[in-house]
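User: Structure tokens for both sequences below?

Assistant:
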Amino acid sequence: MDAVNTSRLSLRPVQLTDLEELYALSRMPEVNLFNPSGPDRSIDEARERLEDWLRDWETDGIGYCTARMLESDAYVGYVGLAARTFRDERVLNLAYRIRPEFQGSGLVTEACRALIEAARPRWSGHRIRVLTKQDNTPSIAVATRLGFTHAPDLDDTPDPGDINLFLDL
């Protein structure tokens, strides 16, 4: 999958040059309200995660993207789909984190919709999974707007309070 643009965003595969911005994003308390891992403890931890994401792109041709405002090039955060295994099924995991000043603007829904459509030709027949906390109302609302449905029978995750939502491609 190549870079994708929406009416307001530029979405391109993450790069090592994104490290400083990714680390700064991961350190923002508002961004980690529902993050079970919490903020990165060091820039080295952020680098390891970024390197894992780069391997996703190399292995699967899909992964997380850096999101920037199209007109200003301002760093928004990251959003993307990464191939993962869930109960012996290959699924795409939808994840994102965006800077607080962009939250509530519809950018996440816009970015997710564009990336889902870009993934459809290659990943048709697979499911996309959102794993989130049951009290993460904003993420559940985004997933619902995108057509995801809650699968309560699959909520037996190791962390109490986690829920699974799915969308068929």
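Moving on to the next sequence.
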Amino acid sequence: MRLQTNKGFTLVEMVTVIIILGILVVGVSSFVILGTRIFVESSSVDQVLSQSRFVIERMTRELRNALPNSIRVASPSGAQCIEFLPITASASYISLPIAPEAAADTGSIMLPAQGINLAHKMVVYPLAPAQLYQDSPSTKQGRIFDVKQLSGNRLEFDNELRFDEASPQKRYFMVNGAVSYCFLSSGDIRRYDGYGVQTTQPTPAQMGTGALMGQHVVNNLGSEAPIHYTPGTLVNNAVVQLSPHFEVNGQTFQYQHQVQVINVP
């Protein structure tokens, strides 16, 4: 007579297997979680790095195209802002009414390659922001005026006027509104335009929502300003020093970037 043997697991074996499987699951899950965390954190850092490079490059390009002596910097509560007038066109003038000559309502110019938009304003020999940021340009004498009409290379103003000074290079510039970049205490960098030209440099609240250009800036705006501006002189170009300090996932990095405003009046 044959004896039948029972095959199976004992309770001890089953518990042992469960414990071993549990250890393996914990180890594998910990490895997966750690790998995922490293990937997410590195992706966040890469994103902020790319974002910061983009905003620095964008600011550099726009500042290099700023109207000479139109840059101004202000630090309203909770922000630091840099404002400037972008050049939309530029060329040489042939003849313009310029002091001490008599006022006139016509002039002749060389046309820029991109043409002239009559909705924009003409500027000759700008020397200071106060001469440029005017709600309505002077109707008699100044450095910035509206252009009424253009026929060939001959232009017509709204009325008889004259520019304050002649440009040593006989240059004129066309501008259309101001642009601002603001570093906010929230850590955001925002770009503003389309808010018009104001005598007093506007605050972020006065310029609307703006476009978000960057985040995670941790500069102390009171003691570690991200913007330093040195106006140009007869021998040196104007210089904007950008020193934004970024932080993400406990990692910090800082730019030390210098922009030379190469345009001269």
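User: Anything stand out in the second?

Assistant: Residues 45-84+177-261 form one domain.
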